[in-house]
Amino acid sequence: MLVRQAFRYRLYPSGEQRHQLAVQFGHARHAYNWALACRQEHYRETGVALSFYDLKRAVTALKSEPDHLWLKEADSQVLQAKVADLEKAYKGFFTHRTDFPRFKTKKDRQSIRYPQRFRFKDNRIYLPKVGWVRAAFHREMVGTPKNVTVSKTAASNYYASVQCERELDIPVHTGPAVGVDVGLKDLATLSTGEKIPHPTHLRKAEKRLVQLQRSYSRKARGSKNREKARVLVARQHEHVANCRRDTLHKLSDRLTRENSVIRMENLNIRGMLKNHALAKGIADSGWATLVSFCQYKAMWRGGVVEQIDRFYPSTKTCHVCAYKNAALTLKDREWTCPQCGTVHDRDVNAARVILAAPTVAPRNRPAVSRPAAPSRSRTLPPERRNVKPVERPSDAKVVGRSAGLDEAGSPAPCKAG
Ligand SMILES: [Zn+2]
To answer: For residues 260 and 379, which has the higher predicted lDDT (pLDDT)?
Structure first.
């Protein structure tokens, strides 16, 4: 099977290169926003969506217009890649995976993609219009490099993500099946009875974050000190995100290595985040990321991730005799089954029920149901009303996003105990 894997390396551009990158980021962002505005306007006037190829041509033509000659400073393929990103953003919206595409701002994470003409040598990477940038290749790249995405985070760190393609022989996985119950107290409880404690990265970093944010808010607007304080806040946030990703990579790696079948609940994370009391803990858990990591890793190792219906009463059912304990509340960490007398640990029991429950999604496919019809009660951006949902692509990359997808936009009952 042909698989794509990204390898991310830290970049250390020089002062001049930073300046050049800023030009590329800025021009690419302008092209994206211009294309988005252009598409919206065209739809408003004609009622027909502007095609991807028309937009590509329009951006090329834009560079020759007198007031846009400066766009020629940007690498042409970088601009075209941004138009492709916009197309992807629209597709995500039409398939109900993402919100309507938004205009990009200077304050967001900046990124550009080079589909071609990049090169590698020793500890450097060549980027068109920028030059040979120093990079830390901390791990070996496997496969043929297909494109390079250069990004700058809010904390002003630069990264190059190299997407490589390679032929992979999927092995036969002989491991057992495991049920996984994700939660707030323990990040994951396995049907084997093992509990993986929640690392609570955010909670640990919060004290420092509060200090930094306070210091930031005290600085005068537009001052240099305010900018310095902003970078410190952003760096702390980035640190938390890195820790979280590290934990999830290690856990998903272990789960997929040891088990051929991983069964999890298909959680409605978007809906659950609306519960403010739990939102912080849920966001700090990264359940959706865990599911997506498990999905592609399992696939590469010959395993599979199966999801069970989010409304399946996994917590309230006894895994021994299937008795439903409707009286169970969020506070009960332990309960005794009135029918068979088994003493249950709440989470271990849930994980065992998940292991035995019927699945909702076919193997290795996104666990989304068909796109729901746009409801009339909600105010929708103009394009959404008439255009039919586009066929959902079924490559592995898409799988992760689906975990947080809310089918009808309604919050599901929260099951975070
Ligand atoms: Zn029982």
So the answer is: 260
